[in-house]
Amino acid sequence: xxxxxxxxxxxxxxxxxxxSSGIAWNVISDVQLRHFLAKWIxxxxxxxxxxxxxxxxxxxxxxVISKTRLHTAGRFATGQSDGWKNxxxxxxxxxxxxxxxxxxxxxxQVMIIAWCTDAAGDAKKMWKDLIKQMPWLIxxxxxxxxxxxxxxxxxxxxxxxxxxxxxxxxxxKWFNNHSxxxxxxxxxxxxxxxxxxxxxxxxxxxxxxxxxxTQCLLETSSALRSCCIKDKKLLEICGGDRQQEKAxxxxxxKTVLDQxxxxxx
Length: 265
Fold this sequence. Notes:
This is DUF659 domain-containing protein. It comes from Scleroderma citrinum Foug A. InterPro entries: RNaseH-like_sf. The chain is mainly alpha-helical. The protein has helices at 4-21, 31-40, 49-72, 93-107, 121-133, 143-155, 160-177, 179-193, 209-219, 221-230, 232-238, 243-256, 259-264, and strands spanning 76-81, 111-117, 138-141. It folds into three domains: 4-69, no CATH class; 73-141, 3-Layer(aba) Sandwich (Rossmann fold); 155-264. Helices cover 66% and strands 6% of the residues. Helix 4 (93-107) links the parallel strand 1 and strand 2 (111-117). Helix 7 crosses helix 12 and helix 11 crosses helix 12. It is flat and about 65 Å long. The relative contact order is 0.06.
């Protein structure tokens, strides 16, 4: 049998492995898995899911909080929150914020001096209630949320800017979705830049995603255009054999080789 220190370290690492990989706690109680671990890690004391997700996890939480507290104790802090509803779909954000507020001050020993929310109805109501209870707080609207609302309004306009952004997204999506075409582009990137540059596909829930996506496309523009010139015939068949797929590939190549497209970006 293992020494207590070794056993505790093994269970600690096992807990972290489950957390990091997103494995459900009850997996550890699977008969075949426990047989495998007993066979290949003899002497190891394998906890069941109740112990792994109970005392072992609690011990890890306590360790992380204690370590974090070394960096937060005695410091000022800003809280932030978004909408929160209970099972009845009723907003409970105010009561949850009070709990989080007290928890942060007690566990992390910080002094919360400000709170940041978006400007939606439930958050605004929470902000008013919070200021009534704690009038000393600095209350702020989330700047990123405000900017996102402005950008959302811009995206509703019928403008050349939006057409360019749509074309940019389509070029990135097409290359990322066709492994052979992406391989040809990466080969050209290595020849041009001596490194591979990723094409980032924008996701609406990520701040500044369209800006960063367009910036990445500009950084590899030389390799992209060179690839479309050198390997045009190969790229035209990368999308598939059907006429519609070939036409789509041709449209992407045409966009990449259009100087006005890059000027608009």
